[in-house]
Amino acid sequence: MGSGPASHRVWVLTVRRFAELAWTRHGPVRYVSVGLTPILVALLTPGWWWALCATGAIVGALLDLRTQAAFTRLCARLDDLDDATIRAAVNRHIWSLAAITAAYVAPYAALAFAPQPAPLIGLLFCAGTALICATLHVMTPAMIVRTIPAVIVGLAMNAYAFGSGFSGVVLAIMAGLLGVNAIMAARAGAASFGDLIGARLNAEAAAEDLERRVRERTTQLAVATKRAQAASKAKSMFLANMSHELRTPLNAVIGYAEIVQEDLESGETGSSAADLDRIRNAANHLLAMINEVLDLSRIEAGRLDLRPTPIDLHVLLRGAMDTVRPTATKQRTVCQVNIAPGVETLVADETRVRQCVLNLLSNAAKFTQNGVVALDARACRIGSVPGFAISVKDTGPGMNAEQLERLFQPFVQIDASHTRAHDGAGLGLVITRRLARAMGGDVQAHSKLGQGSTFTLYLPAKSAPARVAA
């Protein structure tokens, strides 16, 4: 046996298996045999030879029971002992087993000097003991070597008593060969015992591995179920909010259209132009939300077409800021644009880049009151590729770590009340990140609650045309 966890497990299984075989299964039969045989000696052999055999049986049984108790205590402590301690304890117990065998066998070896049929009884008893040793004493080679010599002596002495001179010697040698064969049988039994322990160890390892895999699969299933439930709930909430967001501008279109119709029928068209302007604004808002939903559907279906062209970033960024400036002005928010040297031409899909920048600026302007929205652009590297970093910083309410973690998940809105209070489908950031990744870049967010947020759009200086599933 080697060292390490596997070796320790083998020692534990070996000792417990031997204790089970030696006493639980074979112990009662052994005690009955050594208890009844002195009675046979008393019935068949004149003299006090039976008393010698009875004394050997009593001494051997007492040693046997004491060793059994010691083995039981050892088995109870195996998990807390190291290999060296277990080996030392087993070695002591093997010497005890040798002493037990000698105590059982010695009186029957002495029967070689008693009248017939005492030597036959002694020969049979020693042969039975050899069988027990070959069957049970197979835990280690040392156990075989130390317990069998007393049996061989008993066999040889009783066999010699059946002859005289040369014939006695031949019979003693043959009896000794029986003991040697018992040793060989014990060695074969030791190999089988080792194979049994190995198979048991492998079975336990396989069972533990299966149990571990079942626990892992159960955990994964629980996580997947939780995610599926969260996704289902998020989609339900999204649809509920979307139904409100879509109905609001649609009701405005219908309502103001009816007012314009009534004004035309009555001839009072003084406010019709303003009502038509409201209809146009509501329709544009409705179209923007529908486009967001369609954009996300196209991206998830892998039907997003990118057509890169050279873009003047100065013009695009300032134009995007001019677009959201009215919204910021209503919120009494200051708009700033800072473009670092080296930010010039970007080769990408102009429509999608503008959409990404507008989404970030619109969110910042929408949620910032009496503050600042700053648009910064600088050159950077995206891995080993040159690119640009476009940052949108605001002094709005900011977000905590939990909100940041859910920020870019589709159909998950950070705050339903904010989404309902501010027009929008809540898909802008999701679409922005997926568009950025489709163009070879990404969007990262940093925020602290109460201190504002920073969203940075990373784009390679040159992206390839493609139809991708982001």
Automatic annotation (TrEMBL):
Residues 200-227 form a coiled coil. Residues 241-463 form the Histidine kinase domain. It catalyses: ATP + protein L-histidine = ADP + protein N-phospho-L-histidine. Gene3D superfamilies: 1.10.287.130, Histidine kinase-like ATPase, C-terminal domain. PROSITE patterns: HIS_KIN. The chain crosses the membrane at residues 39-63, 94-114, 120-139, 151-178. The keyword Cell division does not apply. It comes from the Bacteria. It is an enzyme of class 2 (transferase). It holds the Pfam family HisKA. Keywords: Coiled coil, Kinase, Membrane, Phosphoprotein, Transferase, Transmembrane, Transmembrane helix, Two-component regulatory system. InterPro entries: HATPase_C_sf, HATPase_dom, His_kinase_dom, HisK_dim/P_dom, HisK_dim/P_sf, MFS_trans_sf, Sensor_HK_Regulatory, Sig_transdc_His_kin-like_C. SUPFAM superfamilies: ATPase domain of HSP90 chaperone/DNA topoisomerase II/histidine kinase (SSF55874), Homodimeric domain of signal transducing histidine kinase (SSF47384), MFS general substrate transporter (SSF103473). GO terms for molecular function: phosphorelay sensor kinase activity. Its EC number is 2.7.13.3. PANTHER family: SENSOR HISTIDINE KINASE RCSC, TWO-COMPONENT HISTIDINE KINASE. This is histidine kinase. It comes from Terricaulis silvestris.
